[in-house]
Amino acid sequence: MVTPPTLNAFSFGCSACGKCCNTPPALSLPELFRHRDLFIGCLAIGRVPRRRTGERLRTGNHTSVLDESDVAAFDSIARTLLHHANGETFSIVAQGYDYPSLARCPALLDDGLCAVHLQGKPVTCEVVPLDPLVPDRFQHLVLAGRSQSAAYLGADCIQEGAHADEPLLVANGRIEDDGATNALSRRRAALELDHAFWGRAVFASLRRGLFDSAAALARIPPGGFLTISIVPALLAVAGASAPCRDWCIDFIDSQLALIDRSIAQAMTRRRLDDRHVTQELRGFANAYQRAKAVLSIPLTRNKESGDSAFATTVEAYLRGASLSS
């Protein structure tokens, strides 16, 4: 019997070198609540290409031509995790925010290890180096691109083909590592919950001022993200119940203190390239203060006695990561 060749195979072996931990991670809103004293939260808005039958995807020496089933796989992800306006597709995710000049995740210790590895590490970090917005059968293209990127230069953690000293991660359009499969599933599930509990509401609130305006959309850099305050997401969940409102106020207080510390540290570094980030952080702080003023007004009796089932669901969602840590 002839063994079929292994196609589009990549191995991955993490040495905990910390090289890929060069920015704060994307987090679900419950994860951000849990790590509210470590990660400054924001919303990251990006364009996601809409795929077409016959389209050729190429990364390095790897090429795939999309058929109808491939496009259906991309569309399935887009329907549940992304947003659509005027023929374009967008992602809106909660994201940690920090000074790019630091070139490190706030959770990264001096020895290169993760400070929250055993205390609720964000699922995004477990997914690395895969991409939850890409169907499993095309993860080899993600790995091909990342193996050549500056962030992974010298790490040698992503190797093409099967290697005896590194676990096989993807091959033949499949995720071969059970841990990676589980992490991808959990991250997609978290993104779906974010989409349901606040993503659609945020998209609707921003539609006229951003998504329906060509001039405003020009603010999204090609291949990058537009970062805005996370306040719209907080307002979307805070109205569910008095406990949700109180948790959001507590989160805001922690974020204001963290922003103050971050700006104070930046002042001691005195880097010119930090100035625009400091301005944005001050904008975040102002948005938090305005939101806190709104949320400090108690809910009316009608709202407090409203849809109790919905309130319970939102509270359970926010408790997805411990709020007491």
Your description of this structure?
This protein has about 325 residues and is an alpha+beta fold. It has a domain at about 10-230. Helices cover about 45% and strands about 15% of the residues. It has eleven helices and ten strands. The protein has helices spanning about 30-35, 70-80, 125, 140-145, 180-210, 215, 230-240, 240-270, 275-295, 300-305, 310-320; strands at about 10, 40-50, 55-60, 60-65, 85, 90-95, 160, 170, 175, 225-230. The strands form three sheets. The chain has a four-stranded antiparallel sheet with strand order 7-1-8-9. Strands 5-6-2-10 form a four-stranded antiparallel sheet. The protein is globular, with a radius of gyration of 21 Å.
Briefly summarize what is shown.
This protein is of the alpha+beta class. Helix content is 44%, strand content 14%.
Average of the residue pLDDT scores: 90
- N-to-C span: 56 Å
Helix content: 40-55%
Shape: globular
Q: Unreliable segments (pLDDT under 50, ≥5 consecutive)?
A: none
Reading side by side through the largest sheet, how are the strands ordered?
A: 7-1-8-9
Secondary-structure-derived class? alpha+beta
> How is the biggest beta sheet arranged?
4 strands, antiparallel
Strand/helix succession? EHEEEHEEHHEEEHHEHHHHH
What is the strand content? 5-15%
Radius of gyration: 21 Å
Number of strands: 10
Helix count, per DSSP? 11
